[in-house]
Amino acid sequence: MIYAKITGWGKCIPPAEITNDELSQIVETNDEWISTRTGIRSRRVSHVTTAQLATVASQHALACAGLTGKDIDLVLLATCSPSTMVANTASLVQKNIGATGAAACDTNAACSGFLYALQNATAQIQAGMIKRAVVVAAERMTWYVNWAKRDSAVLFGDGAGAVILEASAEPCGLLGTKTGCDSGDRDILHIANYGTDMDKYQPSGPSDLLFEGREIFKRAVKGMSEACDDVLSQANLQLNDIDVLVPHQANLRIIQAIQQRLDISDDKVMVNIDKYGNTSAATIAIALCEAVENGLVKPHSNIMSAAFGAGLTWAASYIKWGERVTPIALSDAALPPCTQSGLELIAPAVKACQ
Length: 354
Fold this sequence. Notes:
- The chain has about 350 residues and is α/β, with parallel strands linked by helices.
- It is built from 11 helices and 13 strands.
- α3 crosses α4 (about 90-95) and α7 runs parallel beside α8 (about 250-260).
- The longest helix is centred in the middle third of the chain and has 23 residues, at about 215-235.
- The protein is globular, with a radius of gyration of 19 Å.
């Protein structure tokens, strides 16, 4: 049997930061209100495009795997904030990393996007269609934020993470997965004035990211927990077989609820929402990279991951890590220098929202 082994990992974190205290300068809130309700203490704001974030993360993942772009057969980008819709943003990432001739495709499942993309690329490798893939998740969620609305302004951040998948005879990589969508209630989490449904001849104003927090919380915990149960059953695993939980970083309370449902101790849970906020599809990709970097993921670790996003999409995945937890090589890829603070970067958008 063919497996899709994770052989490289990399991330791209924009340098400009906005702390909760800084955010309180532009919207009526404070650090205590935000941190106690969400677990977020700061978030990053990108000074570059989604494609640039995805490119740098992919370059680090390629170096980690000891590969170049020419070795890649597929570039699959998970994003709901693409740089361009036509042509797709993955094609620009493909060009930037030198993956000449590789297939390139964007996929949008919102916060569940990375796990959806991981399933897609794994299936193509297992079917023998491709041998190597870059699966990258990148988001500029702050582009959508209406800075006059406290409930959404405090939540989101920007960033990217990537993994390299390679065909292997070793039973590792994505070994169990469950994805789905509860579309009957898709309106409780959506962006109202974006896409071809809008009247392009009428001014639309700032993006309106709409959500019903309490309802989303209930559905997120239920959907992610049930998907994890399904995956554990598929893989014939028990709760105590899980070494690491890498959940979607949307809200610390949701993470803790999933952790409690799965009966996993704190030392096995990857949490970085305090530093980055909700980066949508990129949260799990970034968290997985940091779990490896921090030593939480060890050789042959059993990793459970789960996500819930607009649509309402949901996903859970069981990943078996391989032997290697250190990069084969390091990349010097980096974003261009940022000369503005986080507040300075969003100042035009804040003014437009007033």
